[in-house]
Amino acid sequence: MDETPDQKLPKRYEALADEIAASIRSGALRAGDRLPSVRQASAARRVSPSTVFEAYYLLEARGLIAARPRSGYYVTAAQPVAQQRMPEPAQPVGEVQAVAVAERVQQLLGLARERDLAPLGSAFPSPALFPLATLSRALGRAMRVLDPWRTVEDLSPGHEGLRRQIAIRYIGAGFSLDPAELVICNGAMEALNLCLEAVTRPGDLVAVESPCFYGALQALERLGLRAVEVATDPRGGVDLGSLAALLERHPIKACWLMPNFQNPLGSLMPVENKRALVALLRERGVPLIEDDVYGELYFGERRPPPAKAFDEAGLVLHCGSFSKSLAPGYRVGWAAAGRHAQEVARRKLMSSLSAAVPSQEGLAEYLRHGAYDRHLRQLRRTLADGQARALRAIDKHFPPGTRVTRPEGGYFCWVELPPAVDALALHRLALSHRISVAPGALFSADQRFRHHLRINYGHPEGGRTEAALKTLGQLARSLCG
Amino acid sequence: MDETPDQKLPKRYEALADEIAASIRSGALRAGDRLPSVRQASAARRVSPSTVFEAYYLLEARGLIAARPRSGYYVTAAQPVAQQRMPEPAQPVGEVQAVAVAERVQQLLGLARERDLAPLGSAFPSPALFPLATLSRALGRAMRVLDPWRTVEDLSPGHEGLRRQIAIRYIGAGFSLDPAELVICNGAMEALNLCLEAVTRPGDLVAVESPCFYGALQALERLGLRAVEVATDPRGGVDLGSLAALLERHPIKACWLMPNFQNPLGSLMPVENKRALVALLRERGVPLIEDDVYGELYFGERRPPPAKAFDEAGLVLHCGSFSKSLAPGYRVGWAAAGRHAQEVARRKLMSSLSAAVPSQEGLAEYLRHGAYDRHLRQLRRTLADGQARALRAIDKHFPPGTRVTRPEGGYFCWVELPPAVDALALHRLALSHRISVAPGALFSADQRFRHHLRINYGHPEGGRTEAALKTLGQLARSLCG
């Protein structure tokens, strides 16, 4: 076994700040509530006053609390606002649909990569949030000593040490994963595509969320599959009653779902729902393709388990990636495909042989010696702060009647504008102001969600997101008619 | 435009040696022929005697000539032997076939990666032949100065500078390629798969060579396509008369061919045949998927042009890669997909987003500042020598009646054993002697080629290949009955 992964605990003040932030998120502390004085908190917690000071200072920087002169610290107003205005769950009609989204997606997102656009529509968090310099040093070290034979040996299922490191990390999510089940892929996107290929044939029917990650729709389209969209709660994820009814009515061959921090809603399925989902699908013998690329980006106390944690029948094809949490551009993701693991490994070998050796070696080296957990704690905090600031800006600048999700992780929120606002028109208007957004039409096979947007709050640099949201809100107001 | 790629000329003695080697290969110089004396050659060529000495010394090291004391240098016997015993062209019956090879391929090749096996069955040349240290320094340099935004911007179609460098190299093959047509992929394997996807629908019929690269058969299987095998000459590649007849009889939707150094035969289509092939397919509106991964590994004077060089209609989907010529394991290949370029780029984005950024950056940096051409000259010489030695060993040790191809590039030759030798039995027997071979059954949908082997001569270290061929020859003789 390699050295233990970096598990340094957060500093004391950081832990205290995180705890208070969690209370604010859960609603235990509400806007206007006064925090205990530094002296009270110091005594109650048995920490030094300076620890409390530092925690409060951090929370202030994150916009969660504000000091009032000679009065103390108070919870700011941003949080509950959003909570009161959660978008309504979508109620898809349960129709089977052919999928043809690729052109629309390319057209709408093709522009979003231009660097001078404010990237509210981006699919990625800011690359400035990742330890790219440390990673590239790890990459350099690993490649300097690389045994040349490794360049032809590390074929599918991929780098053995890296697979072991990935498996170990799931212990933090409360279950153990067998490294033998893991196949390293060129990012989660390839992993998901291969899993879908492994369990379907052209013409088959696949259940997806509503709204749904456009990448899933593209994959369905590529493989000639049909979609049926399942009602999905902006807070708790896919509705199990609706899913059960659809399974009854239709010959669904697979589900593609994101139980943790769904894209675009940010919804998080309660643990009990995940367990029930796996049981329901097991009963029917329907495989679940689980996209868990945001699982490490939780704002709460600990990593939410994926549905895979409850998979005893090997029917969950779980996919993860380093692209959103550590190493964008390295193109290293994985599938833990249960009883389909061999088939996925074979398809990986047939379709693109293996993931890039430099990327795999660099990541394995970083995970052995790096500070992944420390980086992740910092990243989660930054994203949570980004969310708080974005919600405040939306609250302040968007038209009355706007609703928005308040995810417990990830870097997207889902905005439901007043019905009068045509999101595609807003998208065009925003582009002319050098702001990208992801309009709701991207997230459904039938282009519902006509007055919805997915907003990326993972670009905290220099208040750019808030400025863009202010402009966007004004543009939305101008479209209210 | 970046700095000019490294185009240093070969040293004078290397050029002279290459010229003589070409004369031997072409048959202008035959076994037993005496070379001009050093004095004669020096005068005739206007080079110093020491240049001639060095050239002769090099040719001797390559096994092409031998010194006889007090008599001079003579061409050795290895070359013409093989020429006289070229395998017969296969005559497939032209039946349409479902393809189901994946399990056989995995089973037969799964073992071939164990390091202590003599790798006659390997698909790769020795990793020791590549400038991996120089490459990893280039990778380190590139990553140290990488603008973080590049990690999310270099999505499909891929790194712009790298695409330009790749396009420039085709000038050496006598034509120019538009970088805008290029899509960077995770190796040629992905490029080929995406091209095949782009021009077919499940159930379609695809024409392939006979024998045929098993990777093509696997790709057909993965996509639910059917194969029809075309007679292929071990020397000149696919037979155009047979192909024309099949196009007449069957609704062929695409061809997947390797005009340069075909795997497994090593055949090279004459330039005129390539031109005629493109014209024939254009007439029929049938796209050609061209696998050109060995195109840079020529032993002759200059790079043979790919069929793409004659493509005016945009019907050739040309695929190449650095995996066999420069950077194994980096997983960087490309498709120049003509009129299907946009569709291939879109499919790349949908199925695995982009190739790994570190690999792309490292290769772009190496190509700007490295010595790719110098490396290639060395690599070609090493492979040509390896071939000469392998053919000599086969000539000496294999059973009478053995035939073998003598390719003008690449690192495979195709061996036709006497009909009594069951290649699968020989495969098993060889494994028990820690030698891998690629039995003929891998290279056809209907498992013809029952007494054939593909032999990899790209592992020149320490005479290991020759020793393994000696053992293999003895085992083959023992199976002759």
Automatic annotation (TrEMBL), chains A, B:
Instruction: Extract the Gene3D superfamilies matched here.
Output: Aspartate Aminotransferase, domain 1, Type I PLP-dependent aspartate aminotransferase-like (Major domain), Winged helix-like DNA-binding domain superfamily/Winged helix DNA-binding domain
Keyword Ribosomal protein recorded: no
Q: Has the keyword Transferase been applied to this entry?
A: yes
Coiled-coil regions listed: none
Which residue numbers delimit the HTH gntR-type domain?
10-78
Which UniProt keyword terms apply here?
A: Aminotransferase, DNA-binding, Hydrolase, Pyridoxal phosphate, Transcription, Transcription regulation, Transferase
Pfam families noted in UniProt: Aminotran_1_2, GntR
Concerning InterPro entries, the annotation shows: Aminotransferase_I/II_large, HTH_trans_reg/aminotransferase, PyrdxlP-dep_Trfase, PyrdxlP-dep_Trfase_major, PyrdxlP-dep_Trfase_small, Tscrpt_reg_HTH_GntR, WH-like_DNA-bd_sf, WH_DNA-bd_sf
Q: Which GO terms describe its molecular function?
A: hydrolase activity; transaminase activity
Give the record's family classification.
In the C-terminal section; belongs to the class-I pyridoxal-phosphate-dependent aminotransferase family.
- This chain belongs to which protein, by name? PLP-dependent aminotransferase family protein
